[in-house]
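Record pair follows.
FIRST:
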Amino acid sequence: MRNAFSLVFAILLAGCSGAEDESAPNAMQPTAPSEADLEVAQREAREVFEIVPLPEGVPAAPVSGWCSDTVCAVNQVQFAEADWPAAWLGDYDSQRNVAYCLISSCDGAVQIDKSAGCAWRTVIMEINADDAGDVDAASMETECADLTATQRNLAISKAARITTQIVALIG
């Protein structure tokens, strides 16, 4: 089984068309991947990442509707099938990845929801207080500070619901 670095490197190379003559106008220019390329990238990602079943009662992962490149397709698999379900089961690293992707979109793979990203940063500080450190505290402060008062209130409410559900799932 290939490691994640090899997978990403292979996918990036697959997104370029290399002509023998480098003076050719399209030499090594990125090309849009075909639907088949995206499916191959997702299938290979499923072989690399630990796929976690979505716990009962957990909402579907907020992935974007469509990816235009293989990096996005791989990130969608990692987010929706590994990090999202594992975050709801209390996994610290997955919770950090979920918060990050909700803020940044992870190359277009995830729908940006800054309020939800702030909520997950808050959950990290509550659920994984022993693992969370200065970086997590700074991330929470930075990402939540950018919100309006209404968005912050929504984030606090979301964090409380998420925390309650995680506690119920992990006992």
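SECOND:
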Amino acid sequence: MKKQKKRRPTPTAPTKSTAGDVMNTSVVTVQEDVTVRELAALLTENEITGAPVVNQRGRLVGVVSVTDIAQSAAEGGDFSPRGDGGLFRRHDLEGRASRGELRDLHVETAGLPVRDIMTPTVFTVPEHTPVAKLAQTMISGRIHRLLVTRHGRVVGIVTALDLLKLLADRK
């Protein structure tokens, strides 16, 4: 009887997962005319950090995120205490506002429509795009979410967190 040679285990081949395999099909969209305040409530309620923006016809017109909200607030510069209506400039608050006054401040841009703060560039990928290509696109574009399309229609979303989860599951 001939002794069989033991084979070394072959390294695991990288998975051939695609955007369609890892995408979240529950895409929360936001209308371009909702206010930043309403957007913040929507993002908080759905425990997400961004969403695709659609116009009245449902056409994709941009993407908006908590970063866009923060950037808008930082660039706006005008702040108002709730209920007071008086405007303060950012430099007027330095060293003069109590902790309670600071807690009660809200950014005047909260009433702006989302279209005014969104990023009009939308990154989409077909559902058959390999996961490695998704990661490369996110890294090179410095973006956190990709919309997945089939025949030109959005069918899902892949976020940076989705890719991290995939990596963690591979252990």
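COMMENT: The chain has a mean pLDDT of 76.
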